[in-house]
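Researcher: Structure for this, please.
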Amino acid sequence: MNQQLAGFAPTPVAARMENHGHSMVKVAMQSGYDLYARTGSMVAYEGFVQYEPNPPAVRQIAGQWITGEGTPLMKCAGDGLLYLADYGADVVAIDLGGDSLSVNGTNLLAFDAQLDWGVERVKGLAKFAGQGLWNVRVGGQGWVALTSRGTPIVVDCGRGEDETYVDPDALIAWSPHLKVKGKRSFKASSMIGRGSGEAYQMAFSGEGIVVVQPSEDSTDRLRARG
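Model: Predicted structure, token format:
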């Protein structure tokens, strides 16, 4: 039996954050390097790890986060290995390496506490169905883990002058320095997007990336977590 289960055993630590399969991220916890994670996302841990729900730093920074659009966070601290997941969604671990991302709060699973971060209003998205008014901007030297309903695609927007168009409900994250605007289409409403007969897209231009998930249905994003 041990041989049959060997392929599912934890692997040696190679990085601060790394995937264990498609739907779980393993975090190497170390004293002094705390982590913010989505409340309720812990599925297992080894060693000594403490959890503080809704810590003061989060309340102060995210105080303007509108109820229902924000992501409840907990502070994780200690030494050991921490495993996080989100109802079987795909997880992507990213080493920012000094760059930054603007992340849809519903797709934010965890990030290093020492990163610069804050809640920002996303201009032009209020009219788009399924998309909140607020995003989380994270940047600096550290790691962030994102969730995706299926295997995501990362689109490089710096390859040409053409804009990149994304269904707002499929949008996970993008480089904050990209230019963003909304586009409304009636002729393609039966083929593109979802909603009340109108097709909405977000148009990105400039140099940077856009992370898109293969799901346009945002109903699961409104689910409350315990």
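Researcher: Any notable elements?
Model: Confidence is low (pLDDT under 50) at residues 219-226. The chain is about 5% helix and 45% strand.
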